[in-house]
Design goal:
The chain is built from 15 helices and 19 strands. By secondary structure, the protein is of the alpha/beta class. The protein is globular and about 60 Å long.
């Protein structure tokens, strides 16, 4: 049996916008997803938007009981900024404030370690409408005020705080790839948004340490390793640039307090550097995170670009590297993603060797499957494929810990089938099945197995 360290925690991650839903009179304001669904519902798989999701807002008591049934000793969720501040700033929604307090109190009463994320792709729409969202430094101040309010309001209940979840994703999909609102294609805006997000994260770290001395606050990053197609210098360079853009753009300033010189040089060469001050860079240097959350699903395989950029086309990441499909790769046939368990070990080694072996937790890892109902037997989804997926990654995580990785826990994505942005409920990830029509919850085979995993602290 592979046994994990004594204080290792087991649980899952989810987010407010992907689970809570909305009910009339709840006081919540629109976020980007709420607004986008109202104007372009056709963008969403089967037309399912963020208004219903998994109805956690109404069924939280039942779901917290299910956390125990599935062996949770830790749980990560997020506060929806627009549920606390419907307009992003100014007037507070007391119903939202009370909702999170009762949820957090109930989770803590069960003896579950609580990790709370402040931002999961869910900017209040009013801030986008009034001032271009994260392109405007006023949004940084609004976020800092919101974060400080949360520290002051829930600091007695939260064990670990998180500033942002995967901040590179809204940058990429909102400003390059037309999959997040405001669905622009604008490299200069993308870099500005990334810098402003990092600065907001830095200010939240500073505020947390001021309001809650001794508390732990971190950031969750998708540290997908970039693997070159070959050792040809052009492929190696492509992988290095991919890593700079995808991982180090937030990892280095968050943990080391500085940006990689090569990244700054590339941005400068293409006239993409954002406006910044020496004072801001000093804030980033002095306010680094206490821990990392690491999300990992699949590797990023890249090769050198095969074609020159057209002089009139907008600058995209593909002008620096192209995705590479490795022959013979192991794949999740239900999702189309490569399965490469060693990526976990490689991430752990990178953190140990280049980032001071900072404390970290695997905060997302999971397997999405379309049409899971076909695996139902005797009323239960027999998701052995999910169990095998987790076991494979845990073997590599265990190997990394044996080799000195400072990893403190494993949080699967996710606890209950949740709404996944434009994909809605196309791919299911949960330990618990959600019936969209009845909102009934049923444990999958993996839910029972996960409790055994947690109870045994290994497998």
């Amino acid at each position: 049996m592979l046994k994990f360290p004594k204080d290792f925690v087991w649980g899952s991650s989810t987010s407010g916008p992907q689970t809570e839903g909305r009910v009339p009179g709840d006081g919540k304001g629109d976020n980007l997803w709420d607004y986008w669904y109202q104007v372009e519902p056709n963008r969403y798989y089967n037309g399912i938007g963020p208004d219903k999701t998994s109805t956690f807002y109404e069924n939280w008591e039942k779901d917290i009981e299910l956390l125990l049934e599935t062996g949770h000793t830790a749980f990560r969720t997020s506060i929806q900024w627009s549920r606390i501040f419907p307009q992003g700033r100014g007037e507070v929604n007391p119903q939202g404030v009370a909702f999170y307090r009762q949820v957090f109190e109930a989770i803590k009463a069960k003896g579950i370690r609580l990790l709370v994320n402040l931002y999961h792709f869910d900017l209040p729409f009013a801030l986008q409408e009034d001032g271009d969202g994260w392109e405007n430094k006023a949004t940084i101040k609004a976020y800092e005020d919101y974060a400080r309010f949360c520290f002051e309001t829930y600091g007695d209940l939260v064990d670990q705080w998180i500033t942002f979840n995967e901040p590179i994703v809204p940058v990429e999909f909102g400003y390059f790839y037309d999959a997040h609102y405001p669905h622009k294609v604008d490299a200069k805006a993308a870099v500005k948004v990334a810098y402003h997000t990092q600065l907001a994260s830095t200010l939240a770290v500073k505020a947390c340490h001021e309001v809650l001395p001794g508390s732990k606050i971190g950031i969750v990053l998708n540290l997908t390793p970039a693997y070159p197609r070959s050792q040809h210098p052009a492929d190696v360079k492509a992988a290095r640039i991919a890593d700079l853009f995808q991982a180090q753009s937030f990892l280095d300033p968050s943990v080391l307090g500085t940006y990689p010189e090569e990244l700054v040089e590339i941005l400068s060469e293409h006239d993409l550097l954002p406006e910044y001050t020496a004072e801001e860079l000093e804030l980033i240097r002095e306010n680094t995170v206490d821990f990392l959350g690491v999300n990992y699903y699949q590797p990023l395989r890249v090769m050198a670009p095969r074609f020159a950029k057209h002089p009139d086309s907008p600058l995209l990441p593909e002008h620096f590297y192209e995705s590479y499909v490795m022959p013979g790769r192991k794949i999740n046939p239900h999702r189309g993603w490569e399965i490469y368990e060693q990526g976990i070990y490689d991430i752990a080694q990178n953190i140990k060797e280049n980032y001071g072996n900072i404390e970290w937790m695997l905060t997302e890892n999971g397997m999405g499957v379309e049409g899971e109902d076909k695996f139902r037997e005797n009323g239960m989804i027999q998701d052995d494929y999910r169990i095998d997926f987790v076991k494979g990654h845990l073997r590599e995580l265990h190997r990394a810990i044996e080799d000195g990785a400072n990893c403190k826990g494993y949080l699967i994505w996710t606890f209950i089938d949740c709404w996944s942005w434009l994909n809605s409920y196309k791919n299911r990830y949960g330990l618990v099945e959600l019936d969209l029509e009845t909102q009934e919850r049923r444990l999958k085979k993996s839910g029972h197995w996960f409790k055994e995993l947690s109870d045994n602290n290994g497998f």
